[in-house]
Fold this sequence. Notes:
The protein is of the alpha/beta class. The chain has two domains: 2-295, HUPs (Rossmann fold, 3-Layer(aba) Sandwich); 336-460, Isoleucyl-tRNA Synthetase, Domain 1, CATH 1.10.730.10. The chain has helices at residues 18-37, 52-60, 65-82, 96-111, 166-175, 183-194, 225-230, 232-235, 243-249, 261-275, 306-313, 315-325, 336-365, 380-387, 391-412, 414-420, 422-443, 448-460; strands spanning 2-7, 40-47, 89-92, 115-125, 130-132, 151-160, 180-181, 200-201, 203-205, 214-215, 218-223, 252-257, 282-286, 289-291, 294-295, 332-333.
Amino acid sequence: MRRYLTTTLPYVNADPHLGHALEFVEADCFVRALRARGDEVFFNIGTDEHGAKVAKRAKESHKVPKAFVDFYAQQFDAFARRLTISHDVFLRTTDPKHEAAAQEMWRRSKASGDIYKADYEVKYCIGCELEKTDSELVDGKCPLHPNLEIETRKEENYFFRFSKYQDALLKHYESHPDFVMPRARLHEITAFVKAGLKDFSISRPKEKLSWGITVPGDDTHIMYVWFDALVSYLSAIGWPEDEAMFKKWWPVTHFAGKDNLRQQSAMFQAMLLSAGLPLSRQVFIHGMITLAGQKMSKSLGNVVDPLLIADKYGVDALRYVLLRHAHPFEDTDFTEELIHELYTANLVNGLGNLVARVMKLAEAYLEPVKLRPEDTSIESAFFEKIEAFRFNDAMDLVWEHVAKGDAYMTTEEPYKKIKSEPDEAKRVIGKLVRHLAKLATHLEPAMPATAEIILNAVRLNKKPENLFPRI
């Protein structure tokens, strides 16, 4: 089976934070699991580099926008590589091929009669880069960016006929009950669309904001950042120039945070309908990482640097915490104290201890164990949990096997039997070695470096260096 997956493209207006790590790692685990099953997968990540937020930060940094985004795009690329994200392409929205794709999307929507020009006055959150209704504001502020002032904008813009696609979107949601996961988010977007769709602005006058893609046929306007950025999921697979590549990989599965629900599952889908393109395969909406109950975001200034966590505990330890202990659908509150507790209990005293004990015995008393196909196969229940985006349940399944290995070691006591019943002790140790191989195979999508170390230790019949040093 072929699958195409994409994360959202983070704005390049500050350093990557733990929320970015969560989305990247969840998507990467999903991709690696599909590849382990034998699926052919194309995985897109990248950076969203236009818009008012970026232009504002570039000005504050005393840099021209292109130099500013070049720096942060490099930061995000390095960030993804540090977290061992196995992406196939890193798409930047300043790429000329993407700009051409965004302009083609505009032309097709205009040809469908879905783009028109009008005056408007709107309340606007620069943090979300979205228009806001009074019902979406709390005490006159955006609840996602309470430290930013809501702007009132009055100007002539181009608009997209979002309202035209209300019935088509509702019909699609009804006929595809798994289109948005979890189901609670599908109900949320369905309620939003049922309440009535308003056409949204898709341009800004260049005299007010020059940093963006020029509107085809009108060089006095640039495209609204969301219209531009959403097209990245198409341009990443060669649309519109490479029709063969597009047909090979489309439709896409989106990984996005709950603050992206409207854009991914309604706005972009309406744009696809307007352009005469097939809709996305699925939209997975994950929860947020919070700190003391608040959303972690750059604009609030309460971010935790995931690279500092990776430097202290290891990349795979960070991936473990995000996949097993962050709820896939709801918000999760983290502190470094909690991360330290999880690391010590489940990695140092759990998995790491089991591997060290088993391989120490194997190195001392066994010849290398010849692995069978079943020793390195992944059980269907694991794939089922991953396909349902229940990463924590999939990891719990792996740690159930860690517990079984510990229990078997305690019950059979091969370290005692090796003198009195050497043959039986060797049989037990061999079984435990195969159990480690099975564990490592299941761990590969989540903790690839750890899985490789364990499998190499099994093949070489040698105890590895301490997997998770005590901190």
